């Protein structure tokens, strides 16, 4: 038996705002996505969810809410905001009572989550071109006693397209001020900032132009995704070819492979991969490929020619007498080898 909603439920002030938001998501987002299955699910869930509400309005002789949210063309970033708005309105409306909406609300919540995932994947793929050229790790332990920001500024001025903050010794509260300063530097220069290991720190200072990098023993990709904003990119370390495949199946947006040459910043473990192995890595990799480990301006050419999208270094810039000049030299070597800069 269907119970017709009572006055307090129909007087719920969030309905008038919720229905136009859902309509915009169902009608406008499909034009922004290659895979429209999630949008179809939102449309179906919206129709099921609003059916009871519309019938209740008719029974009470009340006008239906307007269907348009805005005449401004919707973007993917705007669509994410609408998803967040819809969830907030759903939660708020629930506190004031529902018109027979239990199953429909569950279906709509699931559809909104699926749509958010699809939008996030699309936004992250649109950032794939940013994983290129010189990628410099800023490690306070690899600066030759200098301010890490001096190394970062030199790297950016020298043409680095990506920076990574890696601090294995200090607590996150101590790392945060440096992370914020690096974010400002990167945003001002259209450089992608990656936070090593600390997914919560990346989420705190993100989501704009900030991603995260995890190792094989760090937080799994699926768990990291629950913490990060949908548009935040995630990279994962890999020492073996099967791990590259695994990382992509997990949903990593780019993959790191190495060590290519002997390295002093991460000693131990297995021997270097060598440029020939980069060719094997490239053959199984559909996302941007980052190569790391002992790379210098003198030995980078074979790595680029083997298919690396980005070249990641630490000591080559961090311990250089002139970090900017070292970065410029690396960028020029990457360019000469035919790499992306």
Concise summary:
The protein is an alpha/beta fold and 341 residues long. 50% of the residues lie in helices and 11% in strands.
Shape by Cα distribution: elongated
Question: Percent of residues in helical segments?
Answer: 40-55%
| Strand adjacency order, main sheet | 1-2-3-4-5-6-7-8
The assigned structural class equals: alpha/beta
Annotation, overall tally of beta strands:
8
What is the radius of gyration?
24 Å
Strand content: 5-15%
Q: Please, how many helices?
A: 14
Pattern of helices and strands? HHHHHEHEHEHEHEHEHEHEHH
The CATH homologous superfamily name of the largest domain equals Aldolase class I
Main sheet: strands, sense, barrel: 8 strands, parallel, barrel
CATH architectural grouping of the largest domain:
Alpha-Beta Barrel
CATH class of the largest domain: Alpha Beta
Report how far apart the termini are. Answer: 65 Å
What is the number of independent domains? 2
Q: Which stretches of 5+ consecutive residues score pLDDT under 50?
A: 1-10, 59-68
Query: In CATH terms, what is the fold-level topology of the largest domain?
Result: TIM Barrel
Overall pLDDT confidence: 86
């Amino acid at each position: 038996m269907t119970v017709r909603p009572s006055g307090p439920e129909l007087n719920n002030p969030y309905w008038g705002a919720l229905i136009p938001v859902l309509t915009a998501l169902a009608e406008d987002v499909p034009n922004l996505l290659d895979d429209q299955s999630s949008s179809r699910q939102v449309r179906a869930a919206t129709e099921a969810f609003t059916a009871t509400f519309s019938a209740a309005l008719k029974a009470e002789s009340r006008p239906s809410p307007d269907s348009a949210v805005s005449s401004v063309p919707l973007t993917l970033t705007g669509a994410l905001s609408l998803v967040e708005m819809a969830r907030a309105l759903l939660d708020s409306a629930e506190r004031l009572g529902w018109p027979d909406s239990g199953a429909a609300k569950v279906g709509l919540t699931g559809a909104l989550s699926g749509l958010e995932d699809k939008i996030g994947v699309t936004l992250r793929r649109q950032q794939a071109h940013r994983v290129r050229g010189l990628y410099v790790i800023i490690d306070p332990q690899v600066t030759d006693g200098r301010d890490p920001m001096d190394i970062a500024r030199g790297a950016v001025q020298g043409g680095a397209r990506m920076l990574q903050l890696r601090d294995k010794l200090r607590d996150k509260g101590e790392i945060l001020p440096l992370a914020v300063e690096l974010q400002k530097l990167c945003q001002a220069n259209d450089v992608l900032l990656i936070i090593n290991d600390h997914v919560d720190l990346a989420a705190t200072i993100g989501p704009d132009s900030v991603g995260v990098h995890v190792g094989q023993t760090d937080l799994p990709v699926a768990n990291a995704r629950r913490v990060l904003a949908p548009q935040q990119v995630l990279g994962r370390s890999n020492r073996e070819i099967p791990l590259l495949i695994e990382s992509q199946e997990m949903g990593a947006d780019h993959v790191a492979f190495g060590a290519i040459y002997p390295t002093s910043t991460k000693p131990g473990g297995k021997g270097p991969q060598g440029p020939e192995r980069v060719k094997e890595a490239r053959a199984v990799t559909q996302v941007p490929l980052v190569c790391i480990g002992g790379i210098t301006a003198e030995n980078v050419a074979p790595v680029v020619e083997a298919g690396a999208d980005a070249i990641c270094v630490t000591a080559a810039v961090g311990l250089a007498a002139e970090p900017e000049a070292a970065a410029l030299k690396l960028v020029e070597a990457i360019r000469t080898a035919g790499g992306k800069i």
